[in-house]
Amino acid sequence: MMTQLTKIERDVKPQILIKLKKNKVIVLLGPRRVGKTILINQIREDINEPTLMLNGEDFDVHAILKNRSIQNYKNLLSGYKLLIIDEAQNIPEIGQILKLMIDNVKGLMILITGSSAIDISNKTGEPLTGRKTSFQLYAFSENEFNQIENLIEKKANLRKRLIYGNYPELIHLSTDTEKSEYLKEIINSYLLKDILAFENIRNSSKILSLLKLIAFQIGNEVSLQELGVQLAMSKNTVNKYLDLLTKVFVLYEVKGFSRNLRKEITKNSKWYFYDNGLRNLLIANTIPLELRTDVGQLWENYVLSERIKFQDYNKIISNNYFWRTYDQQEIDWVEDRGGSLYAYELKWNVNSKSKTPKAWSSNYEDSEFKIIHPDNYIEWLT
Question: 156 burial class (0-12, 13-18, 19+ CB within 10 angstroms)?
Fold first, then answer.
């Protein structure tokens, strides 16, 4: 049965189909529950070749692949043209195994998925140098939603997305309670499970406390030293946890922009959540938009995460920053791409007036400046 969930074609799919070639490996990264399994099933149908699907969380699969001999893999893959391994990071020495397969099984295409960038990178990195292409899958993007909603529906749904985010399964949940319960399950059963799987990470309460502190500081610079004091842990441990949270696709970091002008601030970074829903569930706040005091933070987090998706899916190479001076002149988002600077201010109120900061315009006079608000955000993201 075709549902809205399976009907939506992901923006990254055509790129994967182009790169899926004989004796090459495609690595599809992304957090759990963003639709990796549905996507690989769609790709499997489009390829229409004999396919072997394995699950990296199945210990029987581990046992089969453990015998690292060419003949074993030739026997296993006999008659198949496409090998798909879901959650491949769980398989010991997966990089060496895949290298042996693509070097010795003629005409084989391989597609693997992983919900942890650090595991997949470590385990496939060196063995597959020159043999793999990596893609990232996010929760649904604004551009992908265009396939199932018109402009009026999109603007109405935006208010819900600022609260509950864009996880694919949410489009089939009709009540706010169901949505909250689903996101809570993701945090407890998937997010913490992936984080705690790392060596020497045993304290989930500290991870949750860190995430909550970050959640309240969206749009503000974050001091690792201050976080450490609040959490009773060292600055290095805070940095280690934040690095892990980026590797499992929960947070991303934005650094300050500077061309070494005396007044520009670059010491601390800003941190954002890839998904608004997780952010709001972590602080237990899913009250409607009109009752909230953090709408500006929700808007900034949502639009910037959508911009990241847009850049990635469209292969836009950009260094992204915020900009601020010691005398409080600031810009929310700066893109350094193609040899030019593009500055953006993010405003929830469409009537808000904002001029280019004087220090910016005088020092970066060739840059572009634009305000992104609910009346024009779609053109920036699609």
Answer: exposed
